[in-house]
Design goal:
Blueprint (H helix, E strand, L loop, with lengths): L5 H4 L20 E2 L1 E3 L7 H11 L3 E2 L16 E6 L10 H7 L12 E8 L2 E8 L1 H7 L1 E2 L5 E5 L9 E6 L3 E12 L2 E10 L1
Parallel strand pairs: 3-4
Antiparallel strand pairs: 1-7, 2-9, 4-5, 5-6, 6-9, 8-11, 10-11
Length: 191
């Protein structure tokens, strides 16, 4: 009888690539689009330019008020910061409850969303120039904590186009920029 090696005596089950869970997502490095120096007065024209570049249309009245999963791709819309607060859920679950609006009725509390395809949903967010430099390249593995604003103010004037699938966690909070000037922001952990 041939002798058995130690390896043969203690077989180890190894997952084949087909049996590995699909829930593990490996994120590729990504360079973010950043537009610096956008003032509150320039915000609309810059966003209109992006919509045209991406060939997006606004929502029809009948599409407004639906959840993102019910909205066609190739559109832009607005969503309250409230819906992006992950509350311990993953971003996929957050997107299921997010309601799309065709009009930005509360500019201090609503982000513009560019729904390019089911796999590519971008949030238009403003950060400081320093933060933009820090997050303009996401490596897909390390976490970066940032605060996102739905509109520019003071030194927060760099527009970043962030893929929502890079959000690990998000927490909404309201800050006071000045007397009687409040804005809702998201404290986000990106990957």
């Amino acid at each position: 009888m041939p002798s058995r090696s130690r390896v043969d005596q203690y077989p180890v089950e190894v997952d084949s690539p087909e049996s590995v869970s699909d829930s593990i997502q490996i994120l590729q490095p990504l360079s973010l689009k950043v537009i610096r120096g956008v003032s509150k007065g320039q915000m609309d024209s810059v966003l209109i330019s992006r919509r045209r570049f991406e060939n997006l249309r606004g929502l029809s009245p009948l599409e407004s008020g639906k959840q993102i999963s019910e909205i066609p791709s190739g559109t832009f819309f607005f969503a309250s910061t409230y819906y992006f607060d992950t509350r311990g859920d993953n971003i996929t679950d957050v997107l299921k409850r997010c309601v799309a609006r065709r009009i930005r009725s509360l500019p201090d509390y609503m982000f513009e969303i560019h729904y390019l395809s089911e796999r590519e949903i971008l949030i238009m967010a403003f950060v400081s120039d320093e933060t933009a430099s820090r997050i303009c390249r996401l490596d897909g593995s390390s976490e970066r904590k940032v605060t996102l604003s739905p509109r520019p103010w003071n030194h927060v004037d760099a527009l970043v186009l962030l893929p929502i699938d890079r959000f690990l966690r998000a927490k909404e909070r309201v800050i006071e920029i000045a007397e009687r000037d409040r804005i809702s922001v998201l404290d986000v952990t990106l990957q």
